[in-house]
Specification:
Two copies of one chain form a homodimer. The first copy, chain A, is built from eight helices and 14 strands. With 288 residues, the first copy, chain A, is α/β, with parallel strands linked by helices. Chains A, B: This is Hydratase.
């Protein structure tokens, strides 16, 4: 082990809508396999205990859990403690009858934190509130980790805000859907966005997608782990088959590689004297 | 012609260091070929009249021009007028004995504007001042265009600031150099950054690189034009050979495609309530 090495696995599988107990059991079994193989940080897909394509607010509510009392969270928490690992897993969070598309970060000693998806995609707006916890960075024995969920990854601001807080690794529970016009033999655009973000922020990215077609909506797999140069070190996994992608990542590399030469360090090269006037201000009304 | 179509060409060639007159003559000849083929907007590489690998401040100064009096600018201006086209071209700009890594934007009626590279790469810091003109967007008969130069493209803030001002197209005069660890058969990271930026901002990108090895520094070609979905519509060109990549682009598509479904419009989905606290503030001193 050098500096800050950790073996990471993204467990790509197919949750079944509404079959929460079975989905969690499947995930815990696969987590056990990965942990037995030496992985210390496991990333699961977005909404991986409940399924994604909800039919109603009532269904979303029925499938939601609180972090404190949820059965899925309890099962994953027990797995993290029993196997001495960290787990990042997507689920429907309920608090005060509000629902969020969230991910929980668990360690051997219990709850580390929660992230609530800040950028909701399409019909999610019918069931969930937008995230209200900002872009937190969580401290672990092996380094600093941030979490983004699916469409969050379309916003360079989100990656950058995590990098500016020193994140070495961003875990991405996701349910990627097909993009228009993808040419044959091209990496998926979702993969390209992860690669660009990893490179331009000098961070590891571990993105765990689901597979299968749910209520007519196909998902695209292709889970992957990207190094701070922006290149995949594991995956992309299959478009349609379950599979676990695993890589040993030296998170220290993320910090070292931010310095590129005598003059350039990516975070310090930012022209913050030029950015403030627009990046933080709302899009002008009526503007396209 | 529908809506706002324009045929764009990126002219990838090999400037020779210090041979300004010959470099401009070569570029004007190639511009003529592209214009004869119907192109109305021509993008040339970064520092394409002077060459890139400078040996001294004195050499940089000798090769610099003012926008008002420079011979290269005059030649390109004449070409734009004669051929009824627009040209975006990189050159060493001098003003009040300050030097900038700049690009001029010319139209049939003359000078439209100048962009000065805001993020300097490596030894450029020895010769050039950082840009002090912000991220301007220029208006043309076919739409709004922005300009970024090479390392600027590593900063998602730069693309976003252009998109937030309504840019339909970003022209990128560049001198890309090899990146560490690129896997065989992968798109170049520079291409990936263009694709990610085009997709997540819904803009066209026309990036014109140079080729050849200058004073020991290799360049990587692979000029390309990317549509607002993020996919190449022309190129990438050769790694080592000259070549012009050309595409007919409907710039209106950039604005239409920002709306993805009933709920999502990429510019309006930005969580500006969460961004301001950090994006515009300087990196903390001592922070890696």
């Amino acid at each position: 082990m050098s500096e800050a090495e950790v073996q990471i696995s993204c467990i790509q599988f197919e949750p079944r809508i509404g079959e929460t107990e079975q989905n969690v059991a499947t995930s815990v079994s696969l987590i056990g396999d990965a942990a037995a193989g030496g992985s210390k940080l496991i990333v699961l897909p977005e909404l991986c205990n409940s399924g994604y394509v909800l039919n109603s607010r009532e269904e979303a509510y029925e499938l939601s859990e609180t972090v404190e009392t949820g059965n899925s969270i309890a099962a994953w928490r027990a797995a993290a403690a029993d196997m001495d690992i960290h787990i990042v897993a997507g689920f429907i969070e309920r608090q005060d009858d509000r629902l969020y598309n969230s991910a929980v970060v668990l360690g051997p000693k219990g709850l580390i934190g929660t992230y609530r998806k800040n950028h909701l995609w399409n019909a999610e707006a019918l069931y969930f509130e937008r995230g209200d916890l900002g872009f937190p960075v969580f401290h672990t024995p092996f380094g600093r980790i941030g979490v983004l969920i699916c469409y969050d990854g379309w916003f360079p601001e989100a990656w950058r805000l995590l990098a500016l807080q020193g994140a070495d690794l961003v875990c991405v529970p996701t349910n990627w859907v097909p993009m228009a016009e993808q040419p044959a033999n091209s990496p998926a655009m979702a993969n390209i966005l992860c690669m660009a973000a990893a490179h331009s922020n000098s961070m590891f990215v571990a993105a765990c997608d689901r597979i299968g077609t749910e209520r007519g909506q196909p998902f695209i797999g292709q889970s992957l782990i990207v190094n701070p140069n922006g290149w995949p070190v594991a995956g992309p996994a299959s478009v349609s088959e379950p599979g676990t992608v695993t890589a040993v990542c030296n998170l220290s590399a993320a910090r070292r590689q931010r310095t590129w030469n005598s003059f350039n360090q990516v975070m310090r090269d930012r022209r913050t004297d030029l950015y403030p006037e627009m990046l933080g201000t709302p899009t002008r009304p009526g503007w396209y």
